[in-house]
Amino acid sequence: MKIVVIGSGTAGSNFALFMRKLDRKAEITVIGKEPTMQYSPCALPHVISGTIEKPEDVIVFPNEFYEKQKITLMLGTEAKAIDRERKVVITDKGEVPYDKLVLATGSKAFVPPIKGVENEGVFTLKSLDDVRKINAYLSERKPKKAVVIGAGLIGLEGAEAFAKLGMEVLVVELLDRLLPTMLDKDTAKLVQTEMEKHGVSFRFGVGVSEIMGSPVKSVKIGDEEVEADLVIVATGVRANVDLAKKVGLEVNRGIVVNEHLQTSDPDIYAIGDCAEVIDAVTGGRILSQLGTSAVRMAKVAAEHIAGKDVSFRPVFNTAITELFGLEIGTFGITEDRAKKEGIAITVGKFKGSTKPEYYPSGKPITVKVIFRKDDRKLIGAQIVGGERVWGRIMTLSALAQKGATVDNVVYLETAYAPPISPTIDPISVAAEMALRKLR
């Protein structure tokens, strides 16, 4: 069987490795524009800050590793078209035949049409090449004032990196809070307050209308001109769907796939940032542009091609980050989005400590849990705290994936030891607050 993958990022690279484990004889070819296989885009801000020494350190495996697995690499190669009738991929280096084709074309940074966005000193933060350019600019120009356009995950992690380098940082966000797709205004404020303590400032409800100077000298925010000598555009990403559209596959914001990750052509699969899957809360279609989702999609697609009856489950988009030592974990629907979707919810919220109140060194933690009123099921959570957020958000996400109700969370069996956690965990206390409203 000839299996061709278009895209050498997280989804494409992991698919090739999973497929090789399942089928030792298949001819597997990966076509990718970049010169290397998988690296971690999430790690790029940490390269800028110096926490990770150099860009090459975020490459997961060298190209030789894949070649030893007898995976043919066509890197530095662009897939121009797909001939579905002949079952060949047409590249700038020739044609590649396939029996099964996997689109792992990923996403690209969205750059809004801001005047001056092409000027020297303006960057996106999506690729290894972006980081190399930013680091070269930092070394050459030694900028002192950075403006980050966009308060999503990449924007905030970039802002943290520049602040750690001693720069003055301003984050500009069109909406009314940071991490607007992940956090409600109350939990977002906790993160904002912590970042402001470390010298990051914010402007909400406004946009950058112009970037002036090349190299950058200032930006225009509303009617105000603000000094800046470096600008990061972090206004989100868009799925790379052009190739899929060109060959007549069903496409919305992403490439539409079924539960097996097959496109409207059953011999073509789509995985990773480019694939549009099912939202576990609303049942509608959604993009799940997370590294964890990309790896799970890769596994499911490989197993299905190998003949296993497996499906990719609807997603809650569980995510976590850390900013200046503050951990932020989320999944599912926010209170704000539930209102927009017309979903009746009950919210429980608890502010406490990660350890018993009597034990020294406990850190503040806020847990917000969201339950659907009609069936009392857990459909979302937001946790902001000084430690151990990861374990708690993972626990709640796992419960939601199993259809847990508010009662299940309230009476959850948890572990206790004074140096680690209280007798009644904050996630259960938050659920108790919701349960009281439902009784």
From TrEMBL:
UniProt keyword Coiled coil, yes or no = no
Pfam family example for this protein? Pyr_redox_2
Q: Pyridine nucleotide-disulphide oxidoreductase dimerisation domain location, by residue?
A: 324-423
InterPro entries given for it? FAD-bd_OxRdtase, FAD/NAD-bd_sf, FAD/NAD-binding_dom, FAD/NAD-linked_Rdtase_dimer_sf, Pyr_nucl-diS_OxRdtase_dimer
Domain (FAD/NAD(P)-binding) spans 1-281
> Which cofactors does it use?
FAD
Keyword rRNA-binding in the entry? The reply is no
The UniProt similarity line reads:
Belongs to the class-III pyridine nucleotide-disulfide oxidoreductase family.
Report the PANTHER family cross-referenced here.
NITRITE REDUCTASE [NAD(P)H] (PTHR43429:SF3), PYRIDINE NUCLEOTIDE-DISULFIDE OXIDOREDUCTASE DOMAIN-CONTAINING (PTHR43429)
What is the protein name for this chain? NADH oxidase
Which species does the entry assign this protein to? Answer: Thermococcus piezophilus
